[in-house]
Amino acid sequence: MPARPRSSLALVRPVAALVTALLVGGVALTAPAAADETAGPALTLSVTADGLAAGGSADEPAVLGTSPASAALSVVVTNTGTEAVSGLDVSTTVVRNGSVGEPVCDQDRSAVVEPGAVVRCAVTVSGVVAGRLHEDISTATARTVPGDAEVSAVTPFYATSVDGSVTVGDRVWLDSDGDGRQDDGEPGLAGVRLTVTGPDGLAVPVVDALGQVRGPQTTAPDGTYAFTGLAPLPDGGRYTVAVDPTSTTLDGLVPTLSGVGDPSSDSSTGSATSSALEPGAQDLSLDFGFVPSPVTPPPPAMATVALTVDASPEPAVVGTTITVKGTVRRAGKAFAATTVPEHADDGSASWTKVATVRSSTKGTLSATTKAVRTGSYRLRYAGDPTTEAGVSPADHVEVRLAVVRLTISAPSSVTKGRAVKVTGSIKREGKGYKAGTTLEFRGSGDDGWRRVKAVRSSSKGALSVSVTPSGSGDYRYRYAGSTTTGAATSGADHVVVKPKPPAKPKPKTYKNCTALTKVYPHGVGRSGAKDKGGDVTDFVRDTKTYDLNKKSDRDKDGIACER
């Protein structure tokens, strides 16, 4: 917005220029300060509390309801001055008795509040207990726009509440005749500890009418007790009183019969729940009777059980079968019983059921399971009325991936442009394995391997593929592995690629050996011919050319012009 011209009178802004007010039930209870006669900034602050027409003074506090009480306050700030303000900050602070929440206003703190504008804030006051005065103070501060001069307003609020507490309790006694009723002359039990919870026995702290958590109580010498000053519960809520069975007074005693006769003189077992109580009401029918504990003979001695377990094979391959064998003996003798083999992964304290197996009359048992993860196996017996439960020592089994081994074989050399057959094998745990592999090649002087083609082995694990090398280098087979089988790579086999030999001249007749040996330096002969002298072996074997130059074969050994 455009800058507002600053009034020359706005330089004098004493706090006394503010007006504070309390608005209760729509009626403003104002307490104007001695306002400066000079026009300038001013705020008016008012409070509305649940529509109650009181609260502006300690002599006339607002009555908020039954203790502990709460109410919604409305704090209204009005710019009653002649200048706009911004940075409005509203706070409410408790002086005594209760608590308040943070004010929530309908306008952002950074907004500009024009003269005559109103900002409304909501704040909750709670925990106002009877017998004490509640006091809080609301404060509003802001700064002029322009000028940045502070202006503020303060107003108090007073309230109280009505005492409407309730009482629950009665008596803990020794039921001498064991009939479940309180009879004349039956003594009370002193020093019994009791707790109160609510509503309906839920384990939540009970807060009395003064906002204090009610702790346990102990019975008086005559066995009586009472939880007084409890806050009424909404929606028909009920309090529950429970006996602490660990109280020393109750040693050797057990609850008597419950629910016998009139509720005012009968007994409850363990805990008792009150009726729904209106404010100011009481329920003194929560009684607890006890009788001496009956003598119980000691239980017969339990037989002990001994278990053993053996899991195999060790190690095991993922997905294969593990056999869990065991024995069960009771009091040193073979025992036919239902047992549970269990498994725990390495590093885990949690045991998982593998199966349910009944041992034979000889006390032996066997179960099978799939090998999944490394861990331990044990045997557990749950026990029976005459036999103690038992657990065997654990037997550890390593579970691993199956081992694969690959081989490769390729010719040591090949003429460039010719194909070679690369063979090999793949075995899993020593047996031929049908699986997909990859043939890879690394050229001489290269660092990395590249894929040539996918090769699937036969059912017996044989590998074979024909490829045409682009140059000298190494070949190998690689298996990528699976969820049950480890990856593997064969060794490398080197292949040398030789250049192609020069093309042979076309067969022709040469004039003499001088002309022939210019093309065939060591002569030319039939396929399979041998030099009579035995010295010449590197002549060219070309039957057609020999036949055309047979006249130059002086020693008739099938080789013309050998030398």
From TrEMBL:
GO CC annotation: extracellular region
Signal peptide bounds: 1-33
Disordered: annotated segments: 256-277, 524-543
Subcellular location: Secreted
Keywords, alphabetical: Secreted, Signal
InterPro entries reported for this sequence: Excalibur_Ca-bd_domain, Ig-like_fold, Sdr_B
Biased composition (Basic and acidic residues): 528-543
Classification via SUPFAM superfamilies: Hypothetical protein PA1324 (SSF117074)
Domain Excalibur calcium-binding: 509-562
Extent of Low complexity compositional bias: 258-276
GO BP, sorted A to Z: carbohydrate metabolic process
Designated name of the protein: Excalibur calcium-binding domain-containing protein
Taxonomic source organism: Microlunatus sagamiharensis
